[in-house]
Amino acid sequence: MTTIAPTLRVASPHRIGATVRIHIANPWTTLITPWLILIGVFLANFAIWHIVIMAAGDRGVGPDAFHYNGGVSWIVFYMVVVAVQAMNQTFSFVVGLGATRRDYFLGTSALFAGLALMYGIGVALLAGVERATDGWGVGGWFFAPGAFASMPLWEVATIYTVVLLFMFFVGSAVAAVFVRWGPSGLIAFFATVAILVLIALWGITQASAWDSVGHFFTSRTPLELAFSSLPLALAGGLVGYGLMRRATPKG
């Protein structure tokens, strides 16, 4: 009697690398557009700073007038969009070429990790220029606002990299929902998330635990808070992979 064992396809470095190359074949989605928009947001803020200075005239503005700015957070949240676009545009094509879903997800995860590192270091370098020019000559802090202004640049780069990695893998879960169920699935997904958030807020209020929540955030440094997002990033990646294993490529 002959027993035929099932064939287990191991992850292929070649197919993983091919997935990365396909993702960046059109660099606009992942490499160009985010930088263009971020620089556009910065230039808009730079113009506003000058308008405020001109309007203040001889009275001048306070030394910390432009110290706090949330414009750079745009690139953090936009990475969810980048993840959804990248996966929606390439999933069917790559799997149709013979790559397994595991190869595709590993390649996509490698891309996301590389992008998070690139953007994290890039923003930190711009923060270094910001410091060297005393806030672009007007005391404006865009790339490292608030508490980030006094941090070592390596710490700024690390925080941005870790947070961007979290957003990428949140995006991978959202993208997997879209790839599997389409727009209706995405609507149901966000509705479910909204309900869960409301339930969590209600539970915290009922337990009178807002002081504990506040203590969690205020008792930790920004670097510690950033690293606390890694388990959630891992969870997002696992959810994305689990959904993608059952997704059907569309022609």
How would you explain this protein's 3D organization?
The chain has 251 residues and is an all-alpha fold. The protein has one domain (13-20, 28-244). 74% of the residues lie in helices and 0% in strands. Helix 6 crosses helix 9 (230-244). It is globular, with a radius of gyration of 22 Å. The relative contact order is 0.12.
**Beta strand %:** under 5%
Summed up, the domain count is 1
Biggest pleated-sheet summary:
none
Straight-line N-to-C gap: 42 Å
Q: Structural class of the helix and strand makeup?
A: mainly alpha
- Which residues sit in consecutive blocks of at least 5 with pLDDT less than 50? 1-8
Mind sketching the topology for me?
Blueprint: H1 13-23, H2 27-56, H3 73-96, H4 101-132, H5 135-139, H6 153-206, H7 210-218, H8 222-227, H9 230-244
Helix pairs in contact: 1-3, 1-4, 2-3, 3-4, 3-6, 4-6, 6-9
List its traits.
251 residues; mainly alpha; disordered N terminus; globular; single chain
Q: Nutshell version of this structure?
A:
This protein is an all-alpha fold.
